[in-house]
Specification:
Strand 1, helix 2 and strand 2 form a beta-alpha-beta unit. The chain is mainly alpha-helical. Helices cover 49% and strands 10% of the residues. The protein has a two-stranded parallel sheet with strand order 1-2.
Length: 80
């Protein structure tokens, strides 16, 4: 977690997840269409590990509603 969203936070988070879970090639990595996720570094990392990126449609807030709800709750609990 970080106070400001930046590319390094996203890269570090996916690296931690890969190290802990050791997903098999072909596992689908679900994300929204945020500015950080489609970045070249992030996409390269996914490709290197064999993960398949799955992004929501641009402008469709319901594609990722469950995760958005979780992060809204987390933000309130942390007090950010």
């Amino acid at each position: 977690m970080s106070v400001t969203p930046d590319q390094q936070v996203a890269v570090t988070a996916i690296q931690m997840a890969i190290a802990r879970r050791q997903p098999a090639p072909g596992v689908i990595h679900r994300t929204d269409h945020g500015a950080l996720d489609p970045s070249g570094v992030y996409q390269h990392l996914l490709a290197q590990t064999g993960l398949v990126a799955s992004m929501s449609r641009k402008g469709n807030c319901y594609d990722n509603a469950v995760v958005e709800s979780f992060f809204r709750t987390l933000t309130k609990e942390v007090g950010a």
